[in-house]
Amino acid sequence: MPNVALEELKSSFLSLDMEATLRVANTVIRGDDKATVKEAVDVVAQSLEIVGKRFQAGEWYLAELVYAGEIAKEAMNILSPLMQTGSSQSLGTIVIGTVAGDLHDLGKNIVVSYARSAGFRVVDLGVDVLAQRFIGAVKEHKPVALGMSCLLTSTERELAGVIEELKSQKLRDRVKVIIGGAALSEKVAYDVSADAFAPDAITGIDIMKKWSASA
Amino acid sequence: MNFKERILTAMNHEEPDQVPVMGLIMDTATVNHILGKKPVDFVGMLQKPVVGTQIKSLLNTNRFWKRMYYDNFAGALGSAIKLGFDANWTICTLMRLNRDSQASLGWSWYDPYGRVWDLGRDAEGNLAVNYSRPLCDTEEKWEAWVAKRASLFETMIKNTASFHKKLVENYGAHIYSIGYAAPGIFENSWQPIGFVNFTRFIYQKPEFVKRVIAFQTDLYIRNLDAVMQSGVEVVLGGDDLGQKTGPMVRPDVVEKLYGESYRRVSDFVHQKKRKFVFHSCGNIYALLDKFVEWGFDGIITMEPTAGMDLGRVREQVGHKLVLIGNLDVSYLMVSGTQQEVEDAVKKAIGDAARGGGYILSTSHSHPLVDPTRMQWMVEAAHKYGRYPIGN
């Protein structure tokens, strides 16, 4: 029989009602309901996945995707302050950042937020990241995937530079590389020898989930 | 027909002698290439301690700023004339230079609305700017920011009026100089606050969001009025409402928040007997019907990298909107072959130019856009764009 609190958590989340979502999360934390914290965390992660699917289907828009990410972040702050990832299962580590010379981070931050909720451990290097920092993070964290964001076509060459450096340090076959950003395309991914291009954050996470499953 | 008649005929959805070609030239790199000027290492000079301070003082005086900005667009118009364009856009902005520890090169621009623009170099060392972050991430900060900037907004409006008038006076006999009132209401409302914050406020502080939009709408209409004082019959305006895969905000929410503002803009421009062309980057199919409903006369951009296909746009809106743009600036106009440029021009003309209502242009400005490719674009327009357009 479905748990009422978990049902309410899901429906309030998918109605983008932050106040109601956080109220239910607090109910679970206090033990006022039979639902466990782990179940509530999974409901948030599943709800976020539904939001992602709606975005991919063109039913929901960027603002809703962003706000759902904010609700998830606050709910996770209540439900799992000590957990590394939002989900109760771990899909491995991803390293992510915006390439050198580029300060755009909206798309990257959406990936970070949704990837954490999906169960990835995310090492977010921030913006304007030099090639050596990407390389250092790959060596240190041994991620399933390296994600590079690049909004400006003028900084596209940074993508190729990082991938060349991975090759020269014999790290390229140890990590999958995914790129995303407004001016990028499948063609750019091919040109710079990335493994994949993500037209949006959710598709990027889907791709990395597949990589995680086959790792 | 001369350039002006060609543009105005196309704007009336009638067939001119040939498809007009418009330049979106504004980047220093592009202007330097076309006019044979050497790049100036402005950022390098700024990084020298004493010189940097002097440049900051100089640039932050309105007189010098106006001169520098005017010279930049005078160069853009000169370049467009040299390449044979019928029109080019012109944009006036006002910024103040600041030392900034968060910026990649230690300097950034602050604009009057509350945005930070990171200051960087393009591939050749020319100055490049990109929106980087908001300065007003709370309601209190936004209120305080705009309250303190009343005189700066007045300066901005005066600069805008004199900038466009002077460009038209000096170049209007040779090219159609179309003023662009930028940035628009949507960008001016969210960018100074930040997209994540603004999204939260849409749900949590709707009255504040309404107040921000009302303020920006009033200011924007004054800005448009200043641009239109040049006397040019067409005015550009707008916002980037789209991102790579669709609108940034649900269309019915855009209507609820901004519909009245955009209708006011169209009505205001039409009262002045001008035409309003709206610029929006990104994938905007879901908003095209709104643009018609809000009274826009045309749209400019239609980015292929965001999936915008000119033929599909024409099919969706018919001749309710003039279409300007669509030639790709990520590959085609940067490193495409002459044949590829010619093919793209032929396709664009075939997709959108029958019956008038189409002005050929790149989908955006970009420092990497190559003048030779622009020249090919103009030549191909002359070759394939003569009316009547064949099948």
Uncertain residue segments of chain A: none
As a whole number of angstroms, the C-alpha radius of gyration of chain B is 20 Å
Helix content of chain B: 40-55%
Sheet with most strands of chain A: 5 strands, parallel
Beta-sheet strand percentage of chain B? 15-25%
Principal-axis shape of chain B equals globular
Based on CA atoms alone, the radius of gyration of chain A comes out at 18 Å
Roughly what is the average pLDDT of chain B, rounded to an integer? 95
Q: For the report, how would you describe the main beta sheet of chain B?
A: 8 strands, parallel
CATH architecture assignment name of chain B: Alpha-Beta Barrel
Number of strands of chain A: 5
Q: Write down how many β-strands of chain B occur, each being a DSSP E stretch of 2 or more residues.
A: 14
Helix-strand blueprint:
The complex is a heterodimer of chains A (215) and B (391).
Chain A: H1 4-14, H2 18-30, H3 37-56, H4 62-79, E1 92-98, H5 106-118, E2 120-124, H6 131-141, E3 145-149, H7 156-168, E4 176-180, H8 186-191, E5 196-197, H9 201-214
Parallel strand pairs in A: 1-2, 1-3, 3-4, 4-5
Helix pairs in contact in A: 1-2, 1-3, 2-4, 3-4, 4-5, 5-9, 6-7
Chain B: H1 3-11, E1 22-23, H2 28-35, H3 42-46, H4 49-59, H5 62-83, E2 87-91, E3 96-99, E4 107-110, E5 115-121, E6 127-134, H6 139-148, H7 150-171, E7 176-181, H8 185-190, H9 195-204, H10 206-228, E8 234-238, E9 242-243, E10 246-247, H11 251-271, E11 275-280, H12 288-293, E12 298-301, H13 310-317, E13 322-327, H14 332-335, H15 338-352, E14 358-362, H16 371-384
Parallel strand pairs in B: 1-2, 2-7, 7-8, 8-11, 11-12, 12-13, 13-14
Antiparallel strand pairs in B: 3-4, 4-5, 5-6, 9-10
Helix pairs in contact in B: 2-5, 5-7, 7-10, 10-11, 13-15, 15-16
